[in-house]
Amino acid sequence: MVPADIAKLVGKGVAITVESGMGEPSRHPDRAYQEAGARVSTERTKLLSETDVVLRVRKPPLSEVGQLRAGCIHVSFLDPFNQAELVDELARCNITAISMEMLPRITRAQKMDALSSQASLAGYVAVILAAERLDKIFPMMMTPAGTIAPARVFVIGAGVAGLQAIATAKRLGARVEAFDTRPVVAEQVESLGAKFVQVDLGDTGQTAGGYAKELTREQQQMQQEAMAKVCAHSDVVITTAQLFGRPAPRIITRQMLEPMAPGSIVVDLAVESGGNVEGSELDREVELNGVRIIGLANLPGRLAVHASQMYSANMTALVEEFYSEEAESFSLDFDDEIIQGCVITHGGEIVNPMLRDLRNANN
Q1: What distance in Å separates the CA atoms of residue 179 and residue 95, rounded to the nearest whole number?
Q2: Phi and psi, residue 346, nearest 5°
Q3: 211 is a catalytic site residue
Q4: What is the pLDDT of residues 161-211, one digit of tens each?
Q5: N or C: which end of the chain has fewer CB within 10 A?
Q6: Is 250 a catalytic residue?
Q7: Whether 284 contacts 275, CB under 8 Å
Q8: Class of the CATH-defined domain 3-112+304-362
Q9: Catalytic site residue 182?
Q10: 105 catalytic, yes or no?
Q11: What is the 3-state secondary structure (H, E, C) of 84-102?
Q12: Active site residue: 113, 180, 235, 268, which one?
């Protein structure tokens, strides 16, 4: 949370306590929060046991869930499909857990969509990292020594992160190609000045939430064959493909990397959820046959000022949507479409329909 948003909520009657030092990485000292009307405290355990609503970025450590006050509301990214033990503990401790990933992609919830706001930053950072590490320039350049051809960038996945990567690479002057299993995004790709790589995979489409559907094994093979040809002449490949609630699909194999020229760069934006690229390693940069594979986590965190500004705005919008100034409380209406989508546990139970159905199917 940034001080400007803290002041906005304080003005509505919300009593806010900020953990000391929280804002330092994004250049907001404790005094800025105090000036905004918040109390600053170092007593983390005491605060967790007394507060009505906890706002944070990442999921809580399992050991910390028991310190939360029973019945409180906890809001953060939770990765609920891959954190079964954490979800069970939140339910056991009677915590109302809101997962920022699970906000429905509807018009009313756009201002709360932290997943998209952070993905846009990740797409930008991916290109900047690649440009810094590539031993070529991105734009075409006319020089006394002749014409330098533009770098060739291939972006795989045209969601929020992919589209921002395309736009950033184009701004830097690269020649950009992009692929997505959803033909519906071709127009968006081309509107940014990139070439959409057409691959006839048959029926693919997208989910109701706008996410790509998982491909069949045959479709994956066809996709890899087509992408291998583009990768072979690309200087930079950026992969952004993720499946909602499942491990990221493996779409770039070692065999696809072999024809790439030494010095080429591959950025795997899905490394935290399993990785799109064979050989990528979490929080490491590795080389395979001269191709550098970047698997760094939390790319938005490299832009802490704007990442905080955007996430704070998303959190503030969520609080404002469900905070009653008259009652001076944060109240949840379980008939509301947003609440139905993002609340994971409540009243000692797993209440999210999607997660509950998945649990029941696996049992």
Answers
A1: 41
A2: -165, 140
A3: yes
A4: 999 999 999 999 999 999 998 888 999 999 999 999 988 766 655 555 555
A5: C
A6: no
A7: no
A8: alpha beta
A9: no
A10: yes
A11: HHHHHHHHHCCCEEEEHHH
A12: 113
